[in-house]
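Q: Give me a protein?
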Amino acid sequence: MEDNIEDELKKQKKGLKIKYTLFTIIIAILVAIASSEYTLYNYFGKIPNKTKSSTDSKENIDVIADNLKEFRDVIDKNYIGEIDEQKILDETIKGYVKGLDDDYSEYMTASEWQEFQADALGNYVGVGIYMSIDKNNNVVVLAPIPQTPAEEAGIKSGDIIAFVNDESTMGMSSDEVSSKIKGEEGTKVKITVLRDNKYLDFEVERKAIKIYHVQNKMLENNIGYISLYTFDEGCSDELKTAYETLKSQGAQKIIIDLRNNTGGLVDEALKILDLFLPKDSVELITVDANENKEKSLAKEDVTIDCDTVVLVNEYSASASEIVVGALKDHKKATLVGKTTFGKGVIQNVFMLQDGSALKLTVNEYYTPNETKINKVGITPDYEVELNEDTEEDEQLNKAIELLK
């Protein structure tokens, strides 16, 4: 009996010792947290609160300027790292424009603007990838450009770009990922993609990429096929040349493939519509910030007047939607595929004195029948899914079937 009592006392003492130890640890943690909060207060508690916003833009700019001055004072007194003044300025402006919460408005430094222009001209140093953001905010490969380092390395449509030179792309835009992939000609970049739940590494050499916007070929039953990859400068002339080549080879009907074509220059889209629509037909309706409505009219006589099917998918966007919206409204083409992306807004570029640029959304556009596109997309006449488990192109097959 005495042995049992002694054992019980030992257990109680042990329990009290454990409780005391835990209590001591908790007190130490609370003291550490309190110390941290006091330190933060010392640095920031004395900064006046000037973050209250106003509906007056000038007042807001004053508030921002005051806050920046206060924070810069703290940084100058306490920050131990080196400061890149130009980067601070660039990132501050980028953050201001990002506050618009518009996916398509952005500030570009002088070097970024030059790079953007090179892309629009279809001439840059890189690996040759069309990419976009999917619904899960992943940067996805729409397609490798034919006969480029990306295609030769084995990068495929649908690959998710997870890392560039071992840096995660999580949270990056497709433009940010693109800028990291580009570089000096002859250098290599490591691209890690996610494919079928497996990570694959590719060491790809950067080369000067010349983009040919159009590919064409003859199909069965006198059907001509034209694939348009992007609406960069000169693509309308290339498409016209491709059509004339196919017509000389006996094409009586055509398929135009705009799948994965994320857009480009509005002027090029309108020039392509000039080939299909009678002169003075409405091609596009735009509405600006002041609700001013403007109609763009066809400037040329019809060049392409034959049965036409246009292939579209969820990555057909912007200038692609301008073209298919007008062709659908004027009953100049049948649409096959998936509902388009839904980017129904137009950006203008405003140049700054130092060579940098502000790309700003300034118009929303509508089809000739005033159908809304932005965040809605254009529904095809025939909705056709692609079976990812086969090599068959069911959408193209449907287009051929309709033209037969």
Remarks:
- The two ends are 101 Å apart (CA to CA).
- The chain has ten helices and 19 strands.
